[in-house]
C-alpha cells in the first residue's frame, strides 16, 4: 500500500478524508484532507492527532486517530480570514457543522450523529512503494481501488469518565 484512506461522510465533496502513508520504515503520516475534484487538499482546520500505537507495525500501516471536530465537515481551508475556527461543543455533538461555504465549497457539508445507526463512509487505496514522506501535503496518485460502507456507530462507543478523555487516551489500545 502506498496510501490508504478513509472518507467520513456521504461523498467526496463534503467528506473528512483521512489519508495515511509511510513517513519512514516505522512511522506513518496522517494527512487530513478535504475536496471533491481529484486529489483532496490538506485541510489545516482538521483537529486530529495520531495516538501512541500508530506506525508501521508488523508490515502494516496503523493509524489510531483522535479527532476533536469530526461530527461534521471540517471548515473549508482558511483563505485570509479567521472564520475557520471551530467552537468545541459539549460532548462534541455538533462541534463542527458544515461550513464548506468558502471558495470552492457551497455543498453545505455533512453532520454525523454519534449514535447514527447507518452512517456513511468510504475508502480508497493506492498500491506502490512507500512514500516515506512526513509532508501532510504530499502529492498522491489516484486510487487503484475504492469502495463505500455504512457503519452503525452505536457499536463504536466506549465509556468516558467524569473527567472526560485524558490527553492521549487510546480506546483502540
Ligand atoms: C489522491 C488523489 C486522488 C485522485 C487524483 C482522485 C481522483 C478521482 C477521480 C478522477 C474520480 C472519478 C472517477 C472514478 O470514479 O474513478 C474519483 C472518484 C472517487 N474517489 Fe478519488 N481521487 C483521489 C483520492 C481519493 C481518496 C483519498 C478517496 C477516499 C478516501 C477517494 C475516493 C473516491 C470515491 C469514493 C470516488 C467515487 C465517488 C465520487 O466520484 O465522488 N479518492 N477520484
Ligand atoms: C483542538 O481541540 C482541542 C480540544 O478540544 C482544543 O483545545 C484545541 O484548541 C483545538 N485546536 C485547534 C487548532 O482547533
Ligand atoms: C436504523 O434505524 C432505522 C430507524 O429506526 C431503521 O429503520 C433501520 O432498520 C436501522 N438500521 C440498522 C442497520 O439497524
From TrEMBL:
Pfam families: CDH-cyt. InterPro entries: Cellobiose_DH-like_cyt. Residues 2-82 form the Cellobiose dehydrogenase-like cytochrome domain. Coiled coil: none annotated. It comes from the Eukaryota. This is CBD9-like protein.
Amino acid at each position: 500500500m502506498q496510501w490508504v484512506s478513509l472518507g467520513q461522510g456521504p461523498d467526496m465533496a463534503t467528506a473528512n478524508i483521512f489519508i495515511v502513508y509511510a513517513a519512514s520504515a516505522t512511522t506513518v503520516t496522517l494527512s487530513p484532507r478535504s475536496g471533491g475534484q481529484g486529489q483532496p487538499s490538506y485541510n489545516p482546520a482538521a483537529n486530529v492527532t495520531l495516538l501512541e500505537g500508530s506506525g508501521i507495525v508488523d508490515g502494516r500501516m496503523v493509524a489510531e486517530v483522535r479527532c476533536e471536530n469530526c461530527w461534521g465537515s471540517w471548515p473549508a481551508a482558511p483563505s485570509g480570514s479567521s472564520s475557520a475556527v471551530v467552537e468545541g461543543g459539549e460532548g462534541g455533538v455538533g462541534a463542527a457543522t458544515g461550513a464548506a461555504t468558502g471558495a470552492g465549497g457551497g455543498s453545505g457539508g455533512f453532520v454525523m450523529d454519534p449514535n447514527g445507526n447507518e452512517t456513511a463512509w468510504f475508502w480508497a487505496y493506492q498500491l506502490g512503494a512507500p512514500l516515506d514522506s512526513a509532508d501532510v501535503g504530499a502529492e498522491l496518485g489516484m486510487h487503484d481501488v475504492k469502495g463505500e460502507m455504512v457503519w452503525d456507530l452505536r457499536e463504536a462507543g466506549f465509556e468516558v469518565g467524569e473527567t472526560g478523555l485524558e490527553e492521549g487516551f487510546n480506546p483502540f489500545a
